[in-house]
Structures are given as C-alpha cells and as structure tokens.
Amino acid sequence: MTETVNGTSTRARRGRAKGLKVKRIFTTEGVHPYDAVEWERRDVVMTNWRDGSVNFEQRGVEFPAAWSVNAANIVTTKYFRGALGTPQREWSLKQLVDRVTGVYTRTGVENGYFATDEDAEIFDHELKHALVHQLFAFNSPVWFNVGTLSPQQVSACFILAVDDTMESILDWYKEEGVIFKGGSGSGVNLSRIRSSKELLSSGGTASGPVSFMRGADASAGTIKSGGATRRAAKMVVLDVDHPDIEEFIETKAREEDKIRALRDAGFDMDLGGKDIVSVQYQNANNSVRVSDEFMRQVETGGKFGLRARLTHEVIEEIDARDLFRKMAKAAWECADPGVQYDDTINDWHTCPETGRITASNPCSEYVHLDNSSCNLASINLLKFLTDDDTFDIARFVKLTELIITAMDISITFADFPTEKIGETTRAYRQLGIGYANLGALLMATGHAYDSDGGRAIAGAITSLMTGVSYRRSAELAGIVGAYDGYERNAEPHKRVMRKHAAANDAVRTIDAMDKAIHAEATKQWQECLKLGDKNGWRNAQASLLAPTGTIGLMMDCDTTGIEPDLALVKFKKLVGGGSMQIVNQTIPRALRQLGYQEEQVEAIVEYIAQNSHVVGAPGLKEAHYEVFDCAMGERAIAPMGHVRMMAATQPFLSGAISKTVNLPESATIDDIEQVYLEGWRLGLKALAVYRDNCKVGQPLSAGNNKKTEEAAVVEPETKVIEVSRPTRRRMPNSRPSITTRFTVGGAKGYMTASSYPDDGLGEVFLKMSKQGSTLAGVMDAFSVAISIGLQYGVPLDTYVQKFVNMRFEPAGMTDDPDVRMAQSVMDYIFRRLALDHLAYEDRAALGIFSASERAAQQRGEDPAAQLDTAALAQSAPIEPPVTKPVPIAEPVRASQQGHLEGHQGFTADAPLCMTCGTKMRPAGSCYVCEGCGSTSGCS
C-alpha cells in the first residue's frame, strides 16, 4: 500500500527554512505501515445484559490479528463513526486511524511543523504504526471527533471559573452543561463565592457556595440521564480557609445518611432507582484545597483563620486538627472530600504571572489555569520491554517526541466548548502525555510495586518522559514559536524546569534498568534547559498521569495509569463469544525473570489459576510474594505503598496523578488522616482515598443498623421478665418445593426450597456438586440450621439481610438471568430465595429485583406490575422443579469458568456500567467497564 500526504505542498511553504526533520524508527522506507501487519476480519456482536437481546452488531470488521477481542469490540462500538448498516460506517481500524492521522499530518504541513513533505510522510507513517501496534493512544475525544463533521474536540479535561456574581454562577451552569453534553468532564473552585456567613450588598445574607452546588448537581444528573452513555464527571473544590468549609466537607456524608434512612424506609435507593434522584451532590467529586499554613497548624495543633471572601479578613478561628479530623471522618464515611495541596501545586506552576492554579479536572490529574483544557495521550510501557528484559530507551524517546508533536498540532485545529477555554488553551497549549501498564512492567521485570526498585524504575521513566517532552517542546518553540503566554512567564517557567532537573539529579538508582533510564533522562533534561533558554517552550504543561480507562483497554493494557495490577487472574473474551479465565501473561515472564525453571513456572501458574493468589504456591519463595501483590485480594498493597509510588513520580510531572488510595474496610479515621498528612509531606499535588464498602448506595450495607444497634444497648434490668418461647412449626410430609440448579464462579450446586402448603418458606436443602465431602457436610449442616430457624419463625428477610453481600470464593458470574453476579454462594442463594419467596415491596426495600423488574425500571414502568414471583412461589400446589432459562450476555465455556470474574467481589463498591450493566473496575480515581469501555471520568 502506498499513500501520499495531503496538505500544503512544499511550494506553499517555499522560503521557510525551519521545520522538523523526522527519522524513521518504527517503519521502513517504501513499506506502508499497514502492509507490515497481519489483518483479520471479525464479527462484533454485543448483547443486552438484561434479556440477552442483541443491541449492537457489526460483522466483518477489520483489525490486526494481535488485537484482543475486547480491544476490537470497544473500538468498533465506541470509536467507529457513521450510521450502522450504511456505506458511511467505518469498518476497519485502518479507516479510523487514517481519519485521525490525516488531520494531524495535514495540519502540521499547513502550519510549518515539517521541513519537507518527506518528513511529513514519515511523521504520518510513524504515527500510524504506533497507533496500530498499540504503542500509545490519544484520549477518547480525538477518536470520537477528529476527521468528522462534528466539532474537532480533542480535549478530555476542562477547568472552569466562577466569580462572586449571579451572572458568573449561571454561566458556570451553562458551560458545565455544554461540556457534559460532549461527554467530557470539568472542575471548578467555588471559593470566590461569598459564604453564608457574609452579607450581600443589599443587606441580606449570602447563600454560600454549597447552596449553588445543588443546582449544578441537578443539572449534571439530568444531562447524565440524557446523554445515556456516561455519568457526568465533575470536580468541585473549596479552599480550606472558606467560612463554609465545614458544611462543604460534610455535605456528601450527610447525603449518605439520607440514603440509609430512605432505603430502610422502603424507598428505591438502588443504582438507577426511581428515588435515588432525591439525593444531592452525588454527581461530583469534592476536594478541599489545603494550604501549607493549614497543614502546619494541623501538625502543631494550632488555630486557623477562616477568611471573608471580599475583604479577606479572618471572621472565625477554628482548631486546625478538628477541621482536619472532620475531613478524614467524612472521607471515611463516603470517600469525599479528597485533598489538593495548594502551595505545592502553585510552587510547580509555570505561569504564575497569568494566574494561580485554583482547581483541577474531575480526576485531579490536570491542574492549570482557569478556563483552560488539556488533551491527553498515554504510552503503553510494556511495549518497550524487550525480549532480553531491558527497557528500549531509544524507541521510548522517539515515540515521546512523536506524541508531543502530534498533541501540539491538535491544539492548532481543535475546537473548544467555550470561547474563553479556546483562548486560554491556544495561548498556553497545555498537553498531558502520560503512560499505562506501569504495574505490569514492574511485575514482568520482577519488581514489587511497593519497593525501592519499583519506585526507582517508575521515577526514572517518568523523568525521562517529561524531560523528552519539554525538550521537544523547546524544539517546537524554535520552529513555530513559544506559547503566547511564555514571555510574561519566562522566568517562572525556567525555574520549574530547573526544579524538575534538580529532582532528576536527586533520584537514587537501584539496578541496571533504572540506572540506564535515569542516565538518558539526565541528558534529556540538560538539553531541555539549554534549548529552553534559547527558544522558550511551546507548551506551558507537558505531562500528567491520567486513569487511561477506555484507551487502556484499547491498547490491551493489563494495568491502567500508575496503578498496580488489580488481580492476578484476568478474563479473556473469545472470538466466538464467551470468556475464558487466564492467568496474567506478565506472571510467567516475572517468574522466569526471578530465576524459576519452566516446570516450576507451570506449577505456580496452575496454582494461581485455581486460587487467584500466590500464597502457598508450590516452589515460590516467600521473598518473591511481594512481586505479585495487587491492588486487591489476598496480598493487597498497603495504602502507603500507593502514596509512596505517587511520591516517586510526582516531581517529574507537570500536572498531577489520577489515583485513589484504597484502604480496607477495617481502616480507621486515623489511617485516613495519616494518608492525607503523608501526601502533603511527600510533595503530592492531589490525593483521594476510598475505604472498602464505605458507600451505602448499594443494597444491604452492614452499617445500616448501626444506630439502631447502639440504641438497643441498655443497662440490664433487675426484675425478671417472662419471655414466651417460640415453638417449632414442622413441615408436613408432603410439601411443595422449587429445585434450582445454579453455578457461581464455576462452582455448581442445587437448592431445594420447600414451602408450607398454606404460607411461606420452611425448609432449604443445599448440595454443592463435586466440592468434596467436607464442604458437602458443611452445606448440609447449614441447610438444617436455616430450616430449623425458618420453622421456629425467623423471617426469611432477616436471613436475606444477614447473608446477601457476604463475600468469599467461589464468587463471580452465575447462570441465573435474575442474579448475574454473586459475591459468594451465600449471596446467590439468599438473593434467589428472596426473589422466589418475598413480595416485591419487601425485596424493593432490600434492593433485590428480578431481570424483568430492572428492565421495567429502565423503561420507566412500574416494576410492581411485573409477574410477582413471590406470589407464585407461595401458591399451592407448586409444579415439579423447572429448570430456569439461562440467557447470559456473554456465554462462558463451562470448562473454563473457574473463578470467572471472582475478583469483582473485591470491587463491590464499584458502580454498575450504565451501558452494559457489568460491574466496573477502578481506573485511577475513576472507573472503567471492561465489557464495553465506558468510563466515569477521563478516557
């Protein structure tokens, strides 16, 4: 295949002496990059998770044979443009990549980026090679919009500004809505708005920023529903010295209490429930912007002043530790607020003469000027690990140059949602290069994520990436000019560059890999400073670490952003439909790197496939366990391990890091305080935490009855009270029953539930197939205990409350269309019993619905009008057992189920995907759906 680059000819640029000279690194002269790839045709068929019906179908799509089914499905459904079934619909990855790269190359030619047309063609071919081979990916808006008739929106991250006027507040609502409509997210700092403790010019009292958050939250919720594909992503920030800071801190925690109360009163507070809309402030991440002064007062136990917004006078003094405690307590209860370290952020600000950095995008990685935006791109680090387990530094450097050039070109042709954002972005040209697959790279090279060696590699790679990016930015400044705001910010920009270089010089190297990377980074920073002094820089910002949700799946990454591996077992989609369980491919490579022989590797991998962890694996040294530690599971990485990794990379990033520090359910408020303090001491720019199971917006949180239980604890009375003993109501010899065959995470079982002929469930028998005599005996004993309890009058809904959401293996996908995922066999059994034997009103209070009832809710109908299975279950006589149909959206091969999706039990708090219904997984401080690629934040 041959191709010519469209655009302005050399004649049109005659007389221009400057321009980039581009060398071939990945491609060969005379060979088009597509011709070096093996292509194949596939069918992409996506089914509805509720009823198994087909909701997307495109057959004969073309992708490289090396691409996974999941990556091809996501690109086909999300990024191919054109109406389905029409000739205009894209059907090949070649068309998608041509559409995007064609615009980049033409714009580069037209604006004098390249020395000759030959350089432009090499740029075009190198870019296509990198994208087709999954070396990197642009953020989702590029794939959505570039080369189409839609506005050429390329940015995923936006920061807005709000002043203390009603006009500005209403503009905020409008601007946010426009951004949400386009599928992106924004952040804003509300600290300029007068507090509820200050007076208006008319003499009345101001409403305060929290009151205006209600309107913005309602708007975001409405646009989310109208947009259908993704939740509105937004960040709201308030300075720690704002007089309304305490109200802001406790806002979402109070709403979580409301969810508890309303759900316990019988309202539908499940995800997507009709009553959940009454809960406020749920469409935003909240963060407190803390200052060094405040944090020092927290350390010493001093007082801190809250200041009026207009006069900046102290109107109230508070105990800094008390306020900090309230921040940690609210985060312990509901994961909000996060913290942003204001002085650290602004100390690394390249453009302070233009204005302070006051806010961030929804995931906290983009921190720069108000009314600005940033386009993102992420490198797949594992692609640069060579067969001899060294890091290909030269190719990494060249790819970084290529990406920065392309990203800067995109600002030239990009459209923006508001005029103010367009003006600022074109004047400061903020970029956000980052990477994914760090966790996989570390494991593959035998490095623990939470280790000095792992942090040394991460720091060296990040320093190299940013050093090359700014060096290329300085080269571009010499060709097409520095950014418009550079002249007034030249000295502070140079100061920040020297800070990056000094941080690089302070890195302590550990072994050969990071020593080599660090040595190249040092060279790049020296050249960057030299060229910057001469030319200035083309971009006010170059790098950050985004969550890489959808694009991480597009690149077939094992891990997202800076995150470690989520679990050791993954689930691979198959071409013919269905899934299979596979052990992460980085594990065998890591074992070989650690010196294990092939037979040992096979035995350890087999053990991991059966147990999903390495503890007790045959022949595996305990000293090597840490290499295989993951974000969740048997050996979860400690919270401070995440904080230390962020600290190792933060000094080499222009922006910040999208990452949530996960804590176990047992974590205390003190633990969260310590994380927030260490984040400040270690020089992070932003930090968010999440305690497992802290959210109550899901069925049956164990914390629901805490207050009731506390109230029930009273001093014992001295008088004797006669209590009538319950009597056992035995089952008749002949009774109706339902037998259900089920599969949970690959474990098969049978349940027979017998009812009294006249009223209610009275007996349950459980049999687990091929599970061994011990488990069979335990299940028999459990069945007897439950049955006797039912016959003594224990209500079924009491058992349901106690056992639903209980988590242990086996867990994962079931073959029951009403209960698609179960966190354990007990979780499944009591959900099934509730569906079969409880009335709709009782189940609704518990958040348990059948597939038809969920579908009715999505259609806006009354689920109570659906078939009442409880009434059928309690009617007599009941017919002999009937095998339930098992339509599932992605059929699973029976021989390969194993612990299919069992790891999702560890992410019980993750939301369900609004597109396909699959439970999402963490990606930075956002979530991503591995089924369809939808994200809750930056893509």
From TrEMBL:
> Taking every annotated instance into account, which residue ranges of this chain make up the domain Ribonucleotide reductase large subunit C-terminal?
155-690
- Protein family (similarity comment): Belongs to the ribonucleoside diphosphate reductase class-2 family.
Pfam families for this protein: Ribonuc_red_2_N, Ribonuc_red_lgC, TSCPD
| Catalyzed reactions per annotation | a 2'-deoxyribonucleoside 5'-diphosphate + [thioredoxin]-disulfide + H2O = a ribonucleoside 5'-diphosphate + [thioredoxin]-dithiol
Record's keyword terms, sorted = Cobalamin, Cobalt, Disulfide bond, DNA synthesis, Nucleotide-binding, Oxidoreductase
Using the record's annotation, list all stretches that form the TSCPD domain. 733-835
- Functional description taken from the UniProt entry: Catalyzes the reduction of ribonucleotides to deoxyribonucleotides. May function to provide a pool of deoxyribonucleotide precursors for DNA repair during oxygen limitation and/or for immediate growth after restoration of oxygen.
Sorted alphabetically, which NCBIfam families does this protein's record hold?
Answer: NrdJ_Z, PRK06556.1
Enzyme Commission number(s): 1.17.4.1
Native species of this protein? Herbidospora galbida
The record's section on SUPFAM superfamilies has: PFL-like glycyl radical enzymes
Q: Name one GO molecular function term.
A: nucleotide binding
Which residues does the UniProt record annotate as the domain Ribonucleotide reductase class II vitamin B12-dependent N-terminal? 44-134
Does this entry carry the keyword Oxidoreductase? yes
Q: Which cofactor does it need?
A: adenosylcob(III)alamin
What's a single GO BP term from this record?
DNA biosynthetic process
Q: What is this protein called?
A: Vitamin B12-dependent ribonucleotide reductase
